[in-house]
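Exercise: predict the fold of this chain.
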Amino acid sequence: MKKYAYIEQLLERYPALSGAGESIKHSADILADCYVQGGKILIAGNGGSAADSEHIVGELMKGFVKARKVPDDYAGELKKIDEEAGMVLSKCLQQAVPAIALCGHTSLSTAYLNDVDGTVGFAQQVYGYGKKEDVFLGISTSGNSKNVIYAAIAAKAKNMKVIGLTGETGGRLKDYCDVTIKVPATEPYKVQEYHLPVYHALCLELEERFFE
């Protein structure tokens, strides 16, 4: 398929997203460059956006619409270590786009909430995990989620790229992003209804570019 094919299909299915088309394509390029450089994607959001963060990781860390079979040389190394286990692993393992949902670390987040300041928890994770090759993807329906904004600032200070996925205004988050995907809605549930097909298209785009 040609570059951006899945994004073009998205825009055909959701004409209301046409104004966000260029920012979605730009985001796809940033994420692809992250993968090429050996980086990872750190993703954070609150409530439904936390669920979206986990959803994105689920699509990136295993096959989405492709099987993403591991390379033959890696399969061979697995079998050298243990023939029986290597057969199972080489059959079942799938190539991944490295991604971490920051909202899933219960012990760390509750400890930070209790001991320090809960609004800085995502920023602490970005500081601890982040490298300049990485991308921070911050999801906020309003664009004003303080903990997501703090994480974006922490990412910029580490020379990471930052992508925002927001509602139509972009809120304060847009001021700290390299690109902001602003969907045409303000009510949280309507924003989230647009977010899902947008990030599906991004995941499909990455899979199409890098995996057979």
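Check your answer against the key: The longest strand covers residues 161-166.
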